[in-house]
Amino acid sequence: MEAPPEPGFVPVSAQAVRPAMPLALSAPRFRLNDPEAIEAPRAEAARLNPSSGRREDLLVQGGFDTIEAPYLRLTLTEASETEPGPSLFITLARRAADGQALAVIRTGERGAIETKFGPMETLQFTLGGEGKRACTGFASLNPGALRLDGWLCAPLGQAPEPRAITCLLDKVVLNGQAPPERETAFASYEARRDPGCGPPALVATVSPRDIGSETGSIPSRATRKSGHTKK
Q: Which DSSP letter does residue 155 get?
């Protein structure tokens, strides 16, 4: 009889994941307002989850191979107020396998944090591919109209502090104009910001052309400064 796997380990091979369907010509609905970041966050093309049919918006900062910098992957899903989400482990495994050839190869301590979007379940884990990253995965604990999940990997093999995730999620803002109900929801989120993360950065005015850009990324500091060189 085959022995059970050692606790804390999961199979390296990623499970098969049905590819998501990109939404053509759909502007990002969210962005990460972090104008002082060394590497600007970027918004990937929105898509439909093949299993649920729900819209997913993806924000990314850094990359798996850039070990000297943080690596963020954040998915925001429009969901039903009462619809339960999959377990955090299953979510992380699916996201890792989704077109990235990555896998969850070890899991560690579980926890929970408070954010402006509500409580999040957390799970320390090792993300593997051509190398390894120490990361903390997170996902919304309670059902709601907007569900968040993702991971944050700290630089140089260190696991990120829980406060780093809280403060990072504080920087998520709407990208351009939004329906009144979404603006109302975000106003309530902003009222729950963590004061320990500091005041929100000024949100730059976004033109319609910027909103429809391919990446939806925040302008870099160099780009922003160049706009003030005219006399």
A: G
pTM: 0.77
Assign 5 to helix, strand or coil.
Answer: coil
pLDDT tens sequence across 71-97: 999 999 988 777 778 899 999 999 999
Burial class (CB within 10 angstroms; exposed 0-12, middle 13-18, buried 19+) of 182? middle
What is the distance between the alpha carbons of residues 206 and 208, in angstroms, rounded to a whole number? 7
**Strand blocks (E) in 102-224:** 103-115, 118-129, 131-140, 146-153, 172-174
Domain segments of the chain as ranges: 21-215
User: What separation in angstroms does the CA of 196 have from each of 53, 138, 165, 193, 211?
Assistant: 37, 20, 12, 9, 30
> From its phi and psi, is residue 161 left (phi > 0), alpha (psi between -120 and 50) or beta?
beta
**21-215 under CATH 1.10.357, yes or no:** no
Three-class secondary structure of residue 224 per DSSP: helix
